[in-house]
Amino acid sequence: MTTDTAPKSRSETDRHHITDTFCKKAKVKPGQRVTVYSDSETRGFCLVVTAAGAKTFAVRYTLKDGDEAGKQVRVTLGPYLEANGKAVATYRREAAKAIGDAARGIDRASKRAEVRKGATIAELCARYMKEHAPKKRSEAMDRNRIDRYILPAWKHRKAASITRGDVRTLLAPIEFGDKAAGLPPRPYEAIGVLALIKKLFSFAIDAEVVTQHPCARMKIDAPELESRELSAAHDLRAFWNLTSGDYAAHMPAPFAAALRFQLLTGSRPGEVFGMTWDELDLEANEWTLPAERSKNKREHLVPLTPILRAIIDAQAAAQAAQQAEAEATGKKVRTSRFVFPALRGGRVTDKMRGLILDRALQAYKKAGHKLERFTPHDLRGTAETVMAAAEVPKEYRDRLLNHVDNSVGGKHYNKHDYKSQKRDALLTLEQWIEARRAPTPSAGNVVTSIRRKA
User: Fold this and answer.
1) How far apart, in whole angstroms, are the C-alpha atoms of residue 175 and residue 13?
2) In 18-52, which positions are buried (b, 16+ CB within 10 angstroms) versus exposed (e)?
3) Does the reported pTM lie above 0.70?
4) Res. 247: pLDDT tops 80
5) What's the CA gap between 323 and 315, in Å, rounded?
6) What mean pLDDT comes out for the span 381-404?
7) 8 phi and psi angles, rounded to 5 deg
8) How far apart are CA 446 and CA 454, in angstroms?
9) Starting at the edge strand that comes first in sequence, how are the strands of the sheet with 286-289 ordered?
């Protein structure tokens, strides 16, 4: 947020109804370096246009008391980025609030000047990452967003100086995109960054670094995430074709195997792609998801049916063959602790999963096949839908999907792992999928067929 003395030239203060269309067409007036267009609807709200083409929203008001009572100031609210009208409405509300505050003697401009001591944003972020972030599963993502968005914009700013307008300015090019920089709108990323800033300042209040939260109750409107299910027979057949060996050129074999494993267990994508060999007990045919990798921070046991075990064994054989080939040719042996590793043996990240699957779906479509876009997480929803359709009791579905039981008994007393019920649910899920996927299923070969395909 910046402040300066408001312009006195009447040529700069013509009133217009500031809309998205007006903002797009607004230009600096001839002979002026800066032109201020005042709004006819909300008095004090204005659009500032520079000769360089920059456009920002601002609010003007008159100081009510103090040594500079009667002085008119202008406070910048945030940039205009040629969005779809949301920015105009958002900043108009911000302007109305600032004007209301000024009428009560609260001057946003002077409040900034009062903040001359306290921790900087860089210091606050360092404390947050050291003291708070390690307790969260989002630690790596928080670090990435701090380095990418927060520090470049606010690194040397005092934490107590950050205002609601500053947060809006930071989020605007993420939420609405920035044509000049070639950045598309990313409303869901903006939601994530806002959530991080909220966590950061909640931590700052608890740590007595600041006394006020700059973005409490701030929200970002974004379209609801669309999800789809692949429970229809044609979708299941297409999914099985997509993840078969015939399409290895479009999708790495470990990736395809992980997608099948995820569908046949209903597990979360990160849980399957992050599975390590030491989480498996192949003698007992069990996979134990450790608490530190579980969303609800509870250890979770998944029985390995013959089909799931066949997928695991195929991965072990493939990795052993790769190692043997490397040794035979004198190359460095590259081992991986992951059951479904990336090409170089590391973990397949969230971003990599989306890119690999989207590219495979595009190639599959170009080859003349039909399969609408889906995400790895949609496979978890598909498993839930299939088990519900196959009349697996909700309690057993919840146990298999590792949903939290918030009842007193579930949280404190019931320690049963439901292993046999989970196994029955998995077998039901497999049989239901095979019956819809196979062109001509028969009662005698349902399990045999899917085991052979796996």
Assistant:
1) 30
2) beeeebeebebbeeeeebbbbbeebebbbbbbeee
3) no
4) no
5) 12
6) 90
7) -105, -15
8) 13
9) 280-281, 286-289, 300-303
Rg (CA), the chain: 29
Residue whose pair of structure tokens reads 């947020």 in the numeric block: 1
Return d(Cα 414, Cα 43) in angstroms, integer: 62
Work out the average pLDDT over 342-354.
83
Average pLDDT for the chain: 83
Average pLDDT over residues 238-258: 81
pLDDT greater than 70 at residue 132: yes
Buried b (16+ CB within 10 A) or exposed e, 374-401: bbbbbbbbbbbebbeeeebeeebbebbb
Q: Measured between alpha carbons, how far is 103 from 207 in angstroms, rounded to an integer?
A: 32
Nearest to 418 by CA among 302, 306, 304: 302
Is residue 57 within 8 A of residue 80, CB to CB? The reply is yes
pLDDT at 341 over 80: yes
Beta bridge partners of 45: 59
* pLDDT, average across residues 78-100: 81
Rounded to whole angstroms, the Cα distance separating 195 from 201 reads 10
State whether the Cα torsion 249-253-259-263 is positive or negative.
Answer: positive
DSSP run (H or E) holding 36:
strand 34-39
Q: Given this model, what pLDDT does residue 85 score?
A: 62
User: Which DSSP symbol is given to 314?
Assistant: H
| Residue 417 clears pLDDT 70, i.e. is over it | yes
- Dig out the tokens for 219 from the structure: 């929200």
Strands 300-303 and 34-39, how do they pair? unpaired
**What average pLDDT does range 382-393 have in this prediction?**
92
Q: Which segments within 209-330 are labelled E, that is strand?
A: 280-281, 286-289, 300-303
Tell me the CA distances in angstroms from 418 to 93, 202, 303, 386, 401, one per residue in order: 53, 39, 10, 20, 12
How far apart are alpha carbons 261 and 423 in whole angstroms?
Answer: 14
Report which of 441, 422, 437, 436 is spatially closest to residue 308, judged by C-alpha positions.
422
User: pLDDT value at position 83?
Assistant: 62
Range scoring the smallest mean pLDDT among 235-249, 273-287, 343-357: 235-249
78's tokens: 């945030």
CB atoms within 10 A of CB 337: 13
Residues 261, 308: contact at Cβ < 8 Å? yes
Alpha carbons 352 and 78: distance in angstroms, whole number: 34
Closest by CA position to 74, among listed 157, 16, 7, 170: 7
Q: How many CB atoms neighbour CB 335 within 10 A? A: 12
| DSSP characters over 328-346 | HTTPPP---SBSS--TTSS
Q: Between vectors from CA 444 to CA 440 and to CA 446, what angle results, nearest 5°?
A: 60
Q: Which residues contact 103 (CB under 8 A, 6 or more apart)?
A: 64
**What's the token pair of residue 176?**
């609405």
